[in-house]
Design brief:
With 259 residues, this protein is an alpha+beta fold. Helices cover 37% and strands 26% of the residues. It has two domains: 139 residues, Fructose-1,6-Bisphosphatase, Chain A, domain 1 (2-Layer Sandwich); 108 residues, D-Maltodextrin-Binding Protein, domain 2 (3-Layer(aba) Sandwich), CATH 3.40.190. Strand 6 and strand 7 form a beta hairpin. Helix 1 runs antiparallel to helix 2 and helix 6 runs parallel beside helix 7. Bound molecules: D-MYO-inositol-1-phosphate and calcium ion (2 copies). One calcium ion binds next to strand 4.
Amino acid sequence: MTDLKQKDLLIKEWLEEIKTYIIEQKNEDLEVSQKTADNDLVTRMDKTIEEKLVGKIRSHFPSDKIVGEEGFGDQVDSLEGTVWFIDPIDGTLNFVKQQENFAVMIAVYTDGIPECGYVYDITQNKLYSSIKGEGVCCNGQQVQHPENLKLNEGMIASSSALMGNEKKPVIREIGRTCMGVRMRGSAGLETVEVLKGNVIAYIASNLKPWDVAPGLLFMSEMGMTASQFDGEEIDLLKDNSIIFATNNAHKEIVNMLDA
Ligand code: IPD
Ligand code: CA
Ligand code: CA
């Protein structure tokens, strides 16, 4: 077995442990607190999940670097070597208010090239995973490539931050050109909607590296396109406003944003 396959199995084991932990804790006090705004929340679970994953990575791969949302990782200013991206709970607001529609996310990159990525929809018991070059699987079953639909042939996913706060009329025009806009509140689960073909694009502003790291691999494995709003490559060392889309819809959205 290759080192990457072994790593993949190990990460999947960790994710199963985390799922059991989340289920065990679901009736306990989440200890919710605010970060930067009323709707920017963190819970005891976000912190303990990240702490657990960071501990495991450090014991198995002590020289690797870790970028984690809740601050248990490292200060990373270069993608040289192996870098892990962790979002312990993507969709914390959903986790607090709905107890569903959230995901645990991990991605591993070496010298800026993705190796493997994971988005675990815990309550639906669906683990989306990818090893570079092997496509994307859901619970081990290969996900089929969706049709390369155009913008007016499907719906898009977006974030309430972009749809609600964006001043540029072009964002609403993109929303009107497609068949409808859906907002799920988890960047990871919205990315999964793109690769399944449920929506033709996900557009969102100011996403953090851990929000997009697994999705970037998923998009390339599905032969779909990922970029910043201006068509430039996504940079995992900074915040990015992103488009994950079918190739046709991607071209149209970039052209509309550029007009
Ligand atoms: C958030 C979710 C949300 C997106 C935000 C992210 P978090 O992640 O992915 O859908 O619109 O920009 O910050 O804070 O719940 O991990
Ligand atoms: Ca999070
Ligand atoms: Ca997130």
